[in-house]
Amino acid sequence: MNTVFGVPLPALLGQLLIGLINGSFYALLSLGLAIIFGLLRMINFAHGAQYMLGAFTAYLLLHFAGIGYWPALILTPIIVGVFGAVIERLFLQRLYGLDPLYGLLFTFGLALMLEGIFRYYYGASGQPYATPPSLAGGTNLGFMFLPNYRGWVVVASLLVCIGTWLLIEKTKLGAYLRAATENSTLVQAFGVNVPILLTLTYGLGVALAAFAGVLAAPIYQVSPLMGSNIIIVVFAVVVVGGMGSILGAIVTGYVLGITEGLTKVFYPEASNTVIFVIMAIVLLVRPAGLFGRE
Amino acid sequence: MNALLDVRGLNAWYGESHVLHGVDMQIREGETVTLLGRNGVGKTTTLRTIMGIIRQRKGTLRFNDQDMMPVPLHKTARHGLGFVPEERGIFASLSVIENLMLPPQIAKNGMTVDEIFELFPNLHERRNSPGTKLSGGEQQMLAIARILRTGVRMLLLDEPTEGLAPVIVQRIGDVLIRLKQRGITVLLVEQNFRFASRVADRFYLMDHGHIQSEFPVAQLGERMDELHKVLGV
Ligand SMILES: Nc1ncnc2c1ncn2[C@@H]1O[C@H](COP(=O)(O)OP(=O)(O)OP(=O)(O)O)[C@@H](O)[C@H]1O
Ligand SMILES: [Mg+2]
Q: Start and end of every ABC transporter domain (chain B) (predicted)?
């Protein structure tokens, strides 16, 4: 049997795949956080809860409206994104210009409320969400067996990350966003409606979290705590990539997901902590993050 | 004829600190007017308050016969006012061409991109490099050019020649003369009054947050002593 450093190849590739899947979620979630932080200068502590809200919205759409996975994958980010935009209009807009601590506390409170509501109705245990029939089963790649749905998660997250990156780097709207991230007063003096831009940006970041939530539903269980379980790692990813760096968030998300998977093969004891160890080292050596501006 | 920009008794504050104490100025359409004054008297604050960036303000502020006091910052530009800040405000994460195209068009009579590249050939050569990779002079030209593209009626220009080599200062002077020929009204903050006298029709001399005196360019010579005293040069 083929081995790499004494590890059987299928086991290695299996963990690599799990790492890549986790990395896909890290990338989507840290991308949303980075976009929001870049423009709003606010750490969105509700990001994990909004990811959970995405998964639950897909679940509720299925159970109360009979709306299946594919329509839910489009509808959920819109519904949850609009919810985010409303939150921004009603509450966050009052907090700009104040100490960033207020935004942090507000979004933290929002996260607790959202989790509390779903815990009240669904308890702490997870609800199953079936894999869409079109992606059931798997494909034998010769060297390993790839469940189709997991392959789709990697592809979908890559597409959405690249699409978001293109939106920010190559469009006029993205140019407004980048410019306003640097100097929002001047962009406003040019006649750009920055308050609306802030609302759209928060809505977009939240929609990305909700999209990740729908993608996650068939893999992990739909549970009120799914967000708080993943978000701590995602914050570490954002710190390693550099707060507010779009490309940094995407690349670091995948790389750290894979690193975590490989650690599970070679030194399983450290697999839960490796990302935090990397974060600590990066904070010591390059406090602005690997992709951050000094 | 009514003034295009009519400022009366304009006061402005940064938090507790009262910086403008009743600024008065009337600028007619097509004029180029220079605001002189020592460091820290409130020249930049005057421009930022007229533009609506500083919202802690009181007094009368009319542009094109419209009350600008209630107009939110992102709507000020639509009335035809453009602002080029002292620090130029070139965005590092945008290329030269993205910087140029950033401000939304407000009127049809702005300069076209071709005209801008003819006037500033350096910008054309470097259109795909990041905005902040330009030299100081090129950044200043980009800062002016991107406002001219939008079709402003009046330009608020804060110390465009600061820290630039004489050749570049000359080029910027050429540009201001072109603007005047196009009928664009300019309020220019400038320390270099040799440069200012080349382009300005009129001067306002500012001290401690108000306008101390006003005179046409023809009187610049006879006012030199007063200017040297007030400006401390
Ligand atoms: N953001 C700010 N907060 C508090 N005070 C400020 C701020 N900006 C400027 N000031 C103060 O307001 C006064 C006027 O400043 P302003 O920048 O308008 O002067 P200026 O005439 O443009 O000076 P310079 O020639 O140095 O550019 C100064 O005393 C300055 O210290
Ligand atoms: Mg100044």
A: 5-233
Looking at chain B, list the stretches that DSSP marks H as alpha helix, in order from N- to C-terminal side.
43-51, 73-76, 96-101, 113-119, 121-125, 136-148, 166-181, 193-199, 224-231
Looking at the domain assignment, is residue B15 inside a domain?
no
B129 within domain boundaries: yes
| B67 located within any domain | no
The count of domains in chain B is 1
How many contiguous H segments (helices) and E segments (strands) does chain B have? 9, 10
Strand order from edge to edge, sheet including B5-14: B17-27, B5-14, B57-63, B66-67
Q: Does residue B45 have its Cβ closer than 6 Å to ligand 1?
A: yes
Quote the pTM value.
Answer: 0.91
Q: What is the CATH number of the domain that holds B77?
A: 3.40.50.300
Q: A179 and B91: CB-CB below 8 Å? A: yes
Q: How far apart are CA B29 and CA B16, in angstroms?
A: 35
Distance, in Å, from the CA atom of A104 to the CA atom of A251, rounded to the nearest integer, reads 25
Chain A partners of B103 at a C-beta cutoff of 8 Å? Answer: 190-192
Stretches in chain B below the pLDDT threshold 70: 1, 233
Domain contains B161: yes
Neighbours of A71 (CB within 10 A): 13
Pull the structure tokens for residue B80.
């035809």
**ipTM score of the complex?**
0.94
Cα B199 to ligand 2 centre (Å): 19
Closest-approach residue (CA) in chain A for B148 = A190
Residues B113/A214, Cβ–Cβ less than 8 Å: no
Residue ID of nearest Cα to ligand 1 atom 22: B44
> Assign residue B89 a region: left if phi > 0, alpha if psi is -120 to 50, beta otherwise?
left
pLDDT tens sequence across A14-57: 889 999 999 999 999 999 999 999 899 999 999 999 999 999 99
- Chain B residues whose beta carbon lies within 8 Å of the beta carbon of residue A179: 91, 93-94, 102
CB contact under 8 Å between A190 and B102, yes or no, is yes
Interface of A with B in 154-193 (CB under 8 A): 172, 175-176, 178-179, 181-183, 185-193
